[in-house]
Amino acid sequence: MENDFKKNLPHYIEQLTNSYHANSISEKISLNLPDKEVIIEIISELEILLFPQHSGNKKMDETTEKYIVGNLMQIVYQKLKKQLKLAFLYEYDRKNQKLMHSADERAESVCMEFFEQLPEIYRYLSMDVQAAFDGDPAAESKDQIVFSYPCITAISIHRMAHVFYRLGVPIIPRIMSEYAHSKTGIDIHPGATIGKYFFIDHGTGVVIGETTMIGDHVKIYQGVTLGALSTRNASKLRNTKRHPTIEDNVTIYSGASVLGGETVIGRNSTIGGSAFITESVPPNSMVSVRRNELNIE
Amino acid sequence: MENDFKKNLPHYIEQLTNSYHANSISEKISLNLPDKEVIIEIISELEILLFPQHSGNKKMDETTEKYIVGNLMQIVYQKLKKQLKLAFLYEYDRKNQKLMHSADERAESVCMEFFEQLPEIYRYLSMDVQAAFDGDPAAESKDQIVFSYPCITAISIHRMAHVFYRLGVPIIPRIMSEYAHSKTGIDIHPGATIGKYFFIDHGTGVVIGETTMIGDHVKIYQGVTLGALSTRNASKLRNTKRHPTIEDNVTIYSGASVLGGETVIGRNSTIGGSAFITESVPPNSMVSVRRNELNIE
Amino acid sequence: MENDFKKNLPHYIEQLTNSYHANSISEKISLNLPDKEVIIEIISELEILLFPQHSGNKKMDETTEKYIVGNLMQIVYQKLKKQLKLAFLYEYDRKNQKLMHSADERAESVCMEFFEQLPEIYRYLSMDVQAAFDGDPAAESKDQIVFSYPCITAISIHRMAHVFYRLGVPIIPRIMSEYAHSKTGIDIHPGATIGKYFFIDHGTGVVIGETTMIGDHVKIYQGVTLGALSTRNASKLRNTKRHPTIEDNVTIYSGASVLGGETVIGRNSTIGGSAFITESVPPNSMVSVRRNELNIE
Amino acid sequence: MENDFKKNLPHYIEQLTNSYHANSISEKISLNLPDKEVIIEIISELEILLFPQHSGNKKMDETTEKYIVGNLMQIVYQKLKKQLKLAFLYEYDRKNQKLMHSADERAESVCMEFFEQLPEIYRYLSMDVQAAFDGDPAAESKDQIVFSYPCITAISIHRMAHVFYRLGVPIIPRIMSEYAHSKTGIDIHPGATIGKYFFIDHGTGVVIGETTMIGDHVKIYQGVTLGALSTRNASKLRNTKRHPTIEDNVTIYSGASVLGGETVIGRNSTIGGSAFITESVPPNSMVSVRRNELNIE
Amino acid sequence: MENDFKKNLPHYIEQLTNSYHANSISEKISLNLPDKEVIIEIISELEILLFPQHSGNKKMDETTEKYIVGNLMQIVYQKLKKQLKLAFLYEYDRKNQKLMHSADERAESVCMEFFEQLPEIYRYLSMDVQAAFDGDPAAESKDQIVFSYPCITAISIHRMAHVFYRLGVPIIPRIMSEYAHSKTGIDIHPGATIGKYFFIDHGTGVVIGETTMIGDHVKIYQGVTLGALSTRNASKLRNTKRHPTIEDNVTIYSGASVLGGETVIGRNSTIGGSAFITESVPPNSMVSVRRNELNIE
Amino acid sequence: MENDFKKNLPHYIEQLTNSYHANSISEKISLNLPDKEVIIEIISELEILLFPQHSGNKKMDETTEKYIVGNLMQIVYQKLKKQLKLAFLYEYDRKNQKLMHSADERAESVCMEFFEQLPEIYRYLSMDVQAAFDGDPAAESKDQIVFSYPCITAISIHRMAHVFYRLGVPIIPRIMSEYAHSKTGIDIHPGATIGKYFFIDHGTGVVIGETTMIGDHVKIYQGVTLGALSTRNASKLRNTKRHPTIEDNVTIYSGASVLGGETVIGRNSTIGGSAFITESVPPNSMVSVRRNELNIE
Questions:
Q1: Domain match, E210 and E177 both
Q2: Domain boundary residue, one of A161, A185, A209
Q3: How do beta strands D225-227 and F187-188 pair?
Q4: Which of F33, E297, B4 lies closest to D272, judged by CA?
Q5: Mutating which of C3, C4, C11, C16 best tests the A interface, going by the most A Cβ atoms within 10 A?
Q6: pLDDT one-digit tens code per residue, C222-280
């Protein structure tokens, strides 16, 4: 019997490679694609840079931190610069741009900007951890939050991916955000702007779209969508503001949807669970759903 | 103190192994169980066969693709055939069937059928990628979609698992679909039939039941359930059509539920977010939820 | 160009380590933090102890099980005791407790209690598997359920984490439950009390809060929240009953929310999909949502 | 340029596979070859069974040793039996024997004989360690000898390989002895018979041939050859005694050669460094080389 | 106490890096050094290409060999070309050569020449295996020889390293030969020329110098040195013939030394064990050592 | 058949563990044994500290070296201190010493002394590399020597092991030297004292005993023994000078033996190949062997 498969192997190979060519996915055959596995390694190393005490480097102290951090930074830099360069070359190639000679320079300059911002990202994350601690009665300690709250994973990666997004890096920011989505169920597009002291509780099913603007001290729950109203004619919508604005001190309970690029939730408002909002809400509002009557038999 | 645990170790062992025997889970003690870790390896290798350019084999070109694909195919074949054989033996054993001598033949013939269909699966996936590109304003390029859209992971694995399901393979299709569910939050039963040019946006929380029929050019959002009406008396319901039919060109927005085996969403219809549908909808319908009034204080 | 990054490296290092110190996350600098990666190893080993036939130890039989189980138990014990001790030391340190000398004893006694209860956990799990088999028409066999149902992963880990929670172990139970959440999308706080013959179908988006009480023979679906009414003033709410009680034989369909510490769903009740419940429901109730009218154009 | 290699790749492949067929090494194409890497894994596991305290299982004590040893034994058994079966099938195949149905039985019976003898091998090794301790002024302790004396590695593996050799196992004993040779520079053919309390100091370059007989309390140094006189007409010499006999209490210093199947070194003799001996030496002899005069200018 | 080391860490770092600069080993600081670990990976992959049946690819047959070989070849090519290029750049850099632009071309052309010769290398190795089988009464089968004779490892790697040596590749050939030396105790300089049907028995301690010429059907034993007479004024001796010539059909027994660039061992000669030869020996000679008298007391 | 082994498994386990107890190797049952695998990791990391440019850290430059070296040093320190402590505890335990509380202090102080000396070790090694370059006509460059000369491996490890030996560390120095022996065939006891600019060519079979004293600018070849005259009554010989003294500028050719604690090879002497020397030789001597006559037939 085994001979049957073996006999057909050349046929199977030819059919599959023919199918590659007949149904090409890549718009242009390019060798300059970043390597997803390396990007995931980089994410893990950046998470260690952000939370070294919670990553097994328990012996790090004021004498050794300089060397541990410095060594890890230069390792990340080597890998990151190479992936950034591939991403820029991919884009130049796809767009038939002539600037290919500057991919190396752009990669270097993105690296520098990124590491310049890393301490500020850390500062924001320390506030996010505080927000989780203040906002969840089940939290024992801030260390526990770093160890086990999915929002910390999601926000850490988002805050880093957002830097790359703003600097115009292709492909990589989205690989980063999807990695976080896969681990946490929280889907934050790297384009979203998020203020400080941000907390997502539980988080599974949260969707935050590309052009969302979120202020400071915002708290949202599982299943919340900050989305677009419609995506018909997707290509025409590229680069327009399609997602809402959430001002400071807003809380949005589980399962609520806030949709549309012109929808603004005014500061200090609370949006009740399962609310479906497609128009702006003034500051200091308390929006609750007038519930369906329940049949109780 | 350590002695205390050690002293009790024989007791703990005996208690646990006794509990195994007293509360047996397997209906019949059988050595013929597939190996979940190997099946996950196989999935990863099949994903490389489907998207080699996006899996680190960047140097693959028209000269080398034959060898890379051929080598990987024969590796997958060796592993897959063995796991298929174990799955068939498991089933024969569980059902006290006498046919055990043919497990090898069935495994071989499933392998052959599967590799015969792989090029067509690739063709469908190339259309699914196009659907994502056309349907999401945030998509930069088709390569980005392959790298980072969870729906591509979920649909790729589903389209392969469905082949095994249709060929009557026990256990393995469900391990495959649950692997995709764990990574993406999208839960598609391997029995579901899905047409071409299919797109799921975001995807977390999507559930698509075993007997669902989905046409071409369908687009669904996160949190959509295509489910059964009730599962009381589960055993009687086995092998009946319990899940809906979605015709061509239907869009279903986030959080909507379409339930029941006789429920049909007619072609060219749009189902609004959070709609709860248990009866058929005619073609060209636009179903929207008359929203609860919102209390805004 | 490369010189630019390198020239700035000392600056980047100083900025980041300064940011660590200026925005300290840990309440007290402590070397006594458990190691998350080791805890995840322990979880994997405990899953093998619970389902050895489904974990690649296919050759285990009545002669060898004693040695396989015994060897794995003593490996788990070595690792677990060390992590427990670190967790207790962390807590002593954080609370300036003087009892540090007894961390070793507490770790030993928690190990003993845990292994004492493991056979009973197995017994409960065998009933949970039965519940899944009886409750899902798509289930082929109980072996398939162990291999591929996310609820089995979530409940197995919960039942173990709950033992540690009840014994007052810091940090570790939550790392365990979040590991299960990340893999399954099911978020069960380790404090929740869950009776026997429990089944969660699909599961993505389920949230079960810390002080939830669930009886026997309960079945819930994807997207169900058993949560708190509000978490304002989180710190005052610590250690109060904030989550509902679900009595025996209750079924709760997808997307329903049951909120509040005094809310009780009486025995033999059924809660319809998307119901939003903040007050108690008497036994034997059938609660269904009076659906929004649908606009069908 | 890269195209040049790629263009030629099909040519290189064809040339090499043609060369395989034109210059076949295996006498008969057989799928039944043992797997060298697995055999090396087995050796490592057997070394742990022999010296568990020196292999990182430091916590093994009288309670746990039963489980650690039992678990490792059944792992070794699974792997070893499979490799033994492949070796027997290889031999049946090569010799066109009809008995292929009994390879499984022979493998099982060799396993049983081997594990039956393992305690006695341990007993001999404990005497070999003592011999090293008594014989080397540089030895600090017996634990140090187990950790770092190459003779212990070589003799341990020899004593095990010799059991397989005597039971007629093809291929595997020689893979084992060559593994020891590669690590230690000591080349003992698995056919050699070696008595108790045996010590090789330093060891590099020692060669002990297939039909050598060594008594008890023998000590040899680096570079000693116990070899054949000539290997012309190798095939005629197969299965004849070609290597010497060394009686009890003999010491042979570095670089000495003792050659020939009828050469006997009588008991209590000492052979000086660089001696070249092709004839028997009576008991109680002290053989020293009358040294070349040295020119000292 | 721990503080003591930590306090001094900056001092230790400064001292060591100062020592790097004060005692520089590399003649010129170059980033273009090959990577030893990658070269060792390449060697392992080349060994699989030469002996695929003995490397775990047991299922390779006439249908699959093309894909297995082709895939491995293109993997080796990617790695090898990169290492070759680094080696050439290193040399250009060290010698201040201006040709740096051609390192890529040289690497490509060496790859092509190497793969062109690989089938012939295989043909020679098949004869070497035959020589071992014919020359060692202890050999069971040619498969056993491939699995476990150190000479096959040493000669395989030598025959490949020699191709690179002849093509002027820096550094890499010697890393290859030293890798073989470390595994087998056989030290063959990659410059040595070795004819067909070559056998080294046991092998530990064999040294074959850079300018040695060895004919066909030569057999040597452990501890044989084919070396230079003196290495005073080493730098003047570079590129002169310093090592002997061994004509066809010569056997050299263990421990013999043949030294000097003008020393020729004529065809069909036999050199006895421990012979020390610094002058030529005519064809058909039988050289034996007139042994020292032995004192036997 | 399989049942046979399984049936006997408890018997095999009992026999082997009984044999452990009846033939105990360790003089005292102690849990405080160092871990050989960790020590080998430490050796590899120390080799990177000594030759970072040749270990894959190619991008190390004057900016990054501080962080790479600093990070690696603190990693080595953590592991090394723990192993040193285990070694001291082992010794205290074995000798029933009461000082167990100071093992930690001794480990710390040995670490500090070791890292204090590392720069000087590097300085010596840079001279050893120069000696190899000056002494071997086949050497292409000093980088090649670091990459591929076994003497560099052997001497690097020796110079480090010797520091630990002098500081009275049990067990660990010998594990280090035997690791080097296994890789290179060069067996240097960690007690031997070796001057600067030292070169061993080829090296296989070299033995250098514990109390050997070697001056500066010494060169030796493969198969040289610097050994003891006799080891009868080994225990009485402990801590006496049993091995020779080699003064400055001595060359010893292959296969020579220099034996005895009072034997001195005077400065500027040359010892011919295979010489057997048991008495002192004055300075400036040229010792050659008056060769055996050769029978040439």
A1: no
A2: A185
A3: unpaired
A4: E297
A5: C16
A6: 999 999 987 677 777 888 999 999 999 999 999 999 999 999 999 999 999 999 999 99
**Residue F38 sits in a domain of what CATH number?**
1.10.3130.10
Contact F123 E22 (CB under 8 A): yes
| In the predicted structure, residue B231 carries a pLDDT above the cut 90 | no
Contacts of D232 by beta carbon, 8 Å cutoff, 6+ apart: none
Q: Which ipTM did the prediction report? A: 0.93
Residue A74 touches partner F, C-beta closer than 8 Å: yes
Query: Rounded distance, CA C222 to CA C257, Å?
Result: 11
Strand F270-271 and strand F251-252: the pairing is parallel
* CATH number of the domain bearing residue E269: 2.160.10.10
Q: Are residues F54 and F134 in the same domain?
A: yes
- Together in a domain, F95 and F219: no
Tell me which chain E residues have a C-beta less than 8 angstroms from the C-beta of D172: none
- Taking one residue from B and the other from D, the number of pairs with CB-CB distance under 8 angstroms is 18
pLDDT in tens, F209-257: 999 999 999 999 999 999 998 767 777 788 899 999 999 999 999 999 9
Check CB contact under 8 Å for F69 and E27.
Answer: no
Placement of tokens 């809402």 in the chain: A244
Q: What are phi and psi of F95, to 5 degrees?
A: -100, 10
Domain annotation covers residue A24: no
Q: C162 CB near a chain B CB, below 8 Å?
A: no
In a domain, C99, yes or no: yes
Using an 8 Å CB-CB cutoff, list chain A residues near B254.
207, 225, 227, 257
Query: For B14-47, how does the pLDDT look when each residue is reduced to its tens digit (9 = 90+)?
Result: 999 999 989 888 866 667 899 999 999 999 999 9
C31 and A58 within 8 Å at the Cβ level: the answer is yes
Give A288's strand partners: B295
Distance CA F201, CA F219 (A): 8
Select the residue of A9, A63, A67 nearest E64 (Cβ to Cβ). Answer: A9
Q: Which domain holds residue D102?
A: 32-185
Contact A158, A181 (CB under 8 A): no
Q: How far is D215 from chain B (nearest CA, A)?
A: 43
Q: Is residue E51 part of a domain?
A: yes
Q: Is F292 on the interface with E (CB under 8 A)?
A: yes
Domain tally for chain C? 2
Nearest by CB to residue D9, choosing from E74, E144, E295, is: E74
E81: in domain: yes
E-facing residues of B in 230-259 (CB < 8 A) are: none
Distance from CA of D68 to the nearest CA of C (A): 5
DSSP string covering D185-234? S-EE-TT-EE-SS-EEES-TT-EE-TT-EE-SS-EEETT-EEE-S--TTH
| Two tokens, residue E189 | 């300089």
- Best A3, A58, A63 member to test E by mutation, with max E CBs in 10 Å, is A63
Contact E/A (≥3 CB pairs under 8 Å): yes
Give the one of A59, A73, A74 whose C-beta lies nearest to F78's C-beta: A59
Chain F adjacent subunits, 3+ CB pairs under 8 A: A, C, D, E
Closest-CA residue of chain E to D14? E66
| Residues from chain D contacting residue B61 (CB–CB below 8 Å) | 6
Does E173 share its domain with E227?
A: no
Residue ending a domain, among C185, C215, C233, is C185
Q: Tens-digit pLDDT profile for chain A (297 aa)?
A: 446 888 899 999 999 999 988 988 886 666 689 999 999 999 999 999 999 989 876 677 888 899 999 999 999 999 999 999 999 999 888 777 666 568 999 999 999 999 999 999 999 999 999 999 999 999 999 999 999 999 999 999 999 999 999 999 999 999 999 999 999 999 999 999 999 999 999 999 999 999 999 999 999 999 999 999 876 777 778 889 999 999 999 999 999 999 999 999 999 999 999 999 999 999 999 998 877 677 887
Determine the Cα–Cα distance for residues A206 and A225; give it in Å rounded to an integer.
6
Q: What is the pTM of this model?
A: 0.94
**Angle of CA points F131, F134, F139, to nearest 5°:** 105
Residue F187, pLDDT above cutoff 60: yes
